[in-house]
Design a protein that fits this description.
4 copies of one chain form a homotetramer. With 351 residues, chain A is an alpha/beta fold. Chain A has 15 helices and 11 strands.
Chain lengths: 351, 351, 351, 351
């Protein structure tokens, strides 16, 4: 039990609980009968808030988890059964969804090695050589993550460049935005600047990593893709019958920019942690710290020692890289204690 | 908006809100960090409660909705890719899951016409004629619903007979128990009597129709099928990261037999409704009233008239059959007002 | 070994060998190097012959077997992943392709009971009640067989009526024409009259049951569906590398109307058989004899007795119905001997 | 039309026609009625010949093309729906089957970069790090090609080492043997030495690239995998109704070691070609020449010049690598003329 053994989890932002406003919103939505499957007023209100955030064309589909959001997004975008998806080798859809893309969508992922988890326009064009060759899959969708799985962020300009390259080549752009809020907070921009305004076609918008108890959304930004969504949501097992209890959570996060405050806090705690271990001999921060995750290479002995007291993941065992994450509710004091323990442990095991 | 236009919904037990104990349980689970994906103490506690309910071999997988519970259950049971599932023509998996069985599982459903939604042992054996014929799919699973989609119930003996026939023929038995609680309440038996003790192999256990906000469970009763479950849960998009918020809901329903009280109340309200319209000229109750749904054939004009004031579904437009459902929180007074309105409307339109 | 034990097979038209002209055509195509995958002159020549037969818009895809032809046809026609196919309960795609529709296409078949294997326009419209209901699959394709699996034929007018109903409702019409030649021969019309001119969108055109050794074709009659075909052919495992050896066979069947002569002969032999057993007490011909198959209900004892000397299938064991088929090379003398044996056997076992 | 424009194709061994003995065998199999779907004496005879070649446990499934052979092989080997296949990045199943693995099997390919198209035991063990992690696919099958797509060969010892590593880790080994004959010819060993004796579990055995008109085989070497084969063959669209016409071709290749003579000739022609261009300034042979393909990097200008007279594929446009192949019927004179043309063209365009 984490509560008893560990002081604090730095394993993932989904180890945190829910923001109190989220629980309150669910409780407030519990007012007797309401139509099921999204024909309720809480879902209606969420639709409006999402349009305010993502633009008038944004059609929102409330879903149940991040993998579901991605599979629904991609299934809305895919047409012919020989189409493929271009994505970074580190993409969540490629590495941590137990093959759902291949099994549920039946689609091949054309994966691209990247130094920092970020795709470039030339990564896309370099994968179009098999166009028109009937023996090869035909790319139709480009999928990127914002924040990436390595904690890095695309700027709005970088996303716009990817969208332009995609569209110029007849492709669509998907964003896995499980941590889109953290990117917007880091970049100091709106959610819309990273998506609608940059030319994104469909996105997965994360709730649970931002403070929801359970709930994500798919946002369809191209009107011609809207119609299929509700059918595909049911088919991909993402339709909640009492949807109000999910919609209310997401609305709570969108109220008074709670999403941004939550993300800013999580990012600040990671910044504090990264700063606290910066320059420590024997510890190398692996990728730029641009969200609520820091990846670091540690001396071999330090990892099990720290893991005996703190929950966190080893990202790459062969290179000794670990991932530390913070959440909307991480306390600065906990970060400081963690920093102190890291410093001691790394010192003990390096040289 | 239902709240303003309609007095009360009789459309579905998922139009109800959540039981207050369920919301409280979620709130109580919001105590800071906890491991994700089910390694938390609320899910551990649920596991124990479920074993108390379904027996020591019961392995519980918390999932997100009813279709997800069914798809995960079936995918745990299916092996070879030419296997098929025998189920009633009216099965939810066959009619109301937007083809998820075919798309997500890639499996053919061998559907059986039934008078009352209930499969019989001879329905099974009659579908085994193609065994060994390589041009035909090979049945591997029998799937029944308890309560059925027509509101009827199998007795424990009937389920045991189906399980015996299935097992004698090398098949497995699945129960879609979205309303298993209502069946146990109607039959006055334990959940275990209808499942484990009757020989069921895997079941979908409904939470949301019994008073949860969101959450169901798959219960695997055969030890050799347990290992695959967690992988398939992630792949079928049913894994909640902050699982404690779902587990806590289901535990609340299992505490002090809240599930049974909720189901008994819903059943009693349907019984009250059925009794209140019994014998009314022009109204025929279609199937035996054995749970929280009553189906009735009404005079054509009465349906739109009643639907202008009450939410409920037309089950079979060609035969004028409607479905009325009650829930854990349906008030007797609302039922009585509904009965009075039905009586007036039917009278006006019959004869 | 059939050659030694049995005098003659009446089991299926695919028990026959290949027409000599087919073998000769393969031999003649064996002239050294030729481009693979269909860029050869034999495939080019077939394309032209097929356009002559089916009209200028006919795009031909040579494929490898009947199930492959059906799966490719349907995959060309299907778009969104929640679409469904309406077909008769007896359709080959529903009964004898080991669930390929569900597994390879991931699609639900909405099956319709029919008295004679033939769908009617009202069968189609009656299956459209779930349109717009996101919990139900959405029909997109109607698939019929010409000749049907029960040996009956649609007239050109009947097919045109189905096509009109399909198109009026936004659906496409597929014809499984594994025995299209037999239908055209029976009806005394062109292949085109039954397909292009009747409004068919895509068809499977049978070669092997008409005298080919191996080979079928998919014919796409809607220009907007042509582009996807070659990719889907490879993906559905239907692309022959040395395609000339298949194309040459089909061209041989199309030369000097060999296909029609083969079909007419097979039909005539079945007619002879049906006439020879007509009126025999104890034997009931089950469906109208309109091609190269006759179905008959026999006294129980006669079936194993006849099967000890002749190869044929029991179609429906519970009703004692057998299927007898003839082929392009069935000899009248063999039919006459078979008739005599049937008459004796039926007499012995009836009454 | 290749016959008129080009002297000779060096594009692929499937540009060749069929060996005369193959056509004769088909013709000889055309002797009236025979049971369909493989219950004929030609298929029975092939079964025996295959057992003589691959051992008493070898169960042969005749199939229709190479992609079909691979998909059937893999579908026989795969069990749970979250399993994955480890294969080289250059594998045919990964690059040239239009995503059939993902679409038809629903499986993820875990692809491994290799210098020469050959997997090593440590490539396998390095991909097992996600074992037991429910978010990752679980490798179940290792698939290699013999000959590889780069024209290189595994020795029997190398295959045995891969099989041992696979089995030690609970995996199965598949060999895509579209050109297995060429490997056996190059290595001077039996087919069995490369498969059964090396511990291979299932293999695709190529016919068309060895001189058949159309036809391949899947050979199942593990008894516990045999039963599923026939069902899966029909479902994966690989069942020929008049199977004798395919079986007879494969039997012809197995008679008097015709397969070996065909492969030896093709290999010798490639050896002649490689020797003829060896040491030519400006031309670099890319990978070891161990079968009937030579890959070479050419000066940019030489490629289109040669392609204006000869059919061959550009393998890697960015690096100027072309692939030249020979077949069972390639004439030495044609090779010599080609060599002369290559030498001239390369000389003209290099420096």
């Amino acid at each position: 039990m984490i509560e008893e053994v560990y002081s604090k989890s730095f394993a993932s932002d989904n180890h945190a609980g829910a923001h109190p406003a989220v629980i309150e919103a669910m409780s407030a939505a519990n007012t007797g009968d309401a139509p099921a499957y999204g024909d309720d007023r809480w879902t209606g209100a969420l639709d409006e808030r999402m349009r305010a955030e993502f633009g008038e064309n944004a059609a929102t589909l409330v879903v149940l988890n991040g993998t579901g959001a991605n599979m629904l997004s991609l299934s809305i975008m895919l047409g012919r059964r020989y189409e493929a998806i271009i994505c970074p080798e580190t993409a969540h859809i490629a590495t941590h969804e137990t093959g759902a893309s291949e099994r549920v969508l039946g689609v091949k992922l054309v994966t691209v090695p990247t130094p920092d988890g970020k795709l470039t326009p030339s990564d896309i064009t370099a994968r179009l050589g098999g166009r028109g060759n009937i023996s090869e899959v035909q790319p139709r969708v480009v999928s990127i993550s914002e924040v990436t799985e390595l904690g890095t962020c695309y700027t709005p300009e970088e996303i716009a460049a990817l969208a332009a390259t995609a569209h110029d080549n007849g492709l669509l752009l998907h964003v896995d935005g499980a941590r889109l809020a953290n990117a917007a907070a880091f970049l100091g921009c709106s959610l819309r600047a990273l998506t609608t305004d940059a030319g994104v076609d469909v996105l997965s918008f994360g709730g649970s990593k931002n403070g929801a108890a359970l709930g994500e959304a798919v946002v369809v930004l191209r009107p011609d893709l809207v119609e299929a969504g509700p059918y595909l949501r049911r088919q991909t097992l993402q339709l909640a019958s009492k949807m109000r209890f999910v919609s209310a959570q997401l609305s709570a996060l969108l109220t008074d920019d709670l999403w941004r405050r939550n993300a800013e806090h999580a990012n600040a705690m990671t910044r504090r942690l990264a700063d606290g271990v910066a320059g420590l001999p024997g510890l190398d921060v692996t990728w730029a710290v641009e969200s609520n995750a820091v990846f670091a290479a540690l001396p071999a002995g330090a990892i099990p020692e720290l893991q005996s007291r703190y929950l966190f993941h080893v990202w790459d065992a062969s290179r000794g890289i670990v991932r530390w994450m913070t959440a909307f509710d991480t306390a600065p004091e906990d970060v400081d204690i963690f920093i102190a323990d890291i410093r001691q442990s790394v010192k003990r095991h390096s040289g």
